[in-house]
Amino acid sequence: MNKKNNTEQQNRKKVKSLPRDINAAIKSVIDIIKQLGEVYSEENKALKQADTKKFMALQEKKISATHEYQTIMAQMIARKNDLNKADPEMKDRLKKLHNNFSTISKENMRSIERMQRCTERLGNTIRSAAVRSAHNTRGYSYGETGAISNISRKKAISSGLSETV
């Protein structure tokens, strides 16, 4: 937990204010959008290749880039009236890049959702195998008379908080 708090503090320190010049500010926004887009692209590639080590290694980088993106975008939104003074080419470049980033982030969400579904299916498969194994395993319990009871084979098996078989 302490390591997480230190990382968050370091991320906050790294984020700088946007330059006063609106064109330079737009350039900073473009740079951070590119940076976060590259992280998402790397993550998408890792997810498609089922490379969990690379996926996990990217998480710190993703958190840092996302935090920077949110901070920079909040600053830019606060200065939205200045956008009228910006170079039209810079605004057009920002719009195109943002559309591309939107596509990459949607693909990233789909990849993460697909990974979650696969993980859920794997968990269900493991749980089902455990239940089958428990049913097939001979369990003995002794009755009131000391004899081995066959009732133990009919016992309910709980495999989770809300599932009893």
Model description:
By secondary structure, the protein is mainly α. The chain has a domain at 24-107. The chain has four helices and four strands, in the order ααααββββ. It has helices at residues 2-14, 22-48, 52-78, 88-136, and strands at 141-142, 148-149, 158-160, 163-164. A two-stranded antiparallel ribbon has the order 1-2. Strands 3-4 form a two-stranded antiparallel sheet.
Unreliable stretches (pLDDT < 50, length at least 5) are none
User: Portion of residues in helices?
Assistant: over 70%
Q: Main beta sheet, described?
A: 2 strands, antiparallel
User: Can you give the mean pLDDT?
Assistant: 82
Q: For the CA atoms, what is the radius of gyration?
A: 27 Å
What's the tally of helices? 4
Strand order in the largest sheet: 1-2
String of helices and strands = HHHHEEEE
Q: What portion of the residues fall into strands of 2 or more residues?
A: 5-15%
- Cα-to-Cα separation, first versus last residue: 38 Å
**What is the tally of beta strands?**
4
Quaternary state, please? Answer: single chain
Structural category is mainly alpha
How would you describe the shape?
rod-shaped
